[in-house]
What does this fold into?
Amino acid sequence: MSRTLAVQGVLLSFLAMAVVVAAGTLLASFATHAKGRCNLLESMILVASTAVIMAGARWVATASVEELFSGIMPVVFVATAVAFGGYGACIARWRRRSWLEGFWFGLILGPLGLLAEANVRDRH
It folds into this structure.
């Protein structure tokens, strides 16, 4: 039982830290660069990305040791990485950069990629 709680605690703390970094970066980028404009596609990407991360956190919190180390865990990690890619794509669009650049930054580097994309100079 203690092994399950330890693994869940580590995974949940990582997800919580990642969500805090992502939320702060998104809010700062939106406030300074989007100027209150967000199109429907960006809104859908943000909502879907947030839902995926929340579902992954809920699954990690309620999973047993066998489920944590089963074949579903890579699916959770890939889904979380794609969610961060969606966040990165929105940040890149707000910064007037290629959405693919932002997607790859978010996908590969996660929350650190969001910070990197948010701090790259705007393309005019």
About this structure: The radius of gyration is 15 Å.
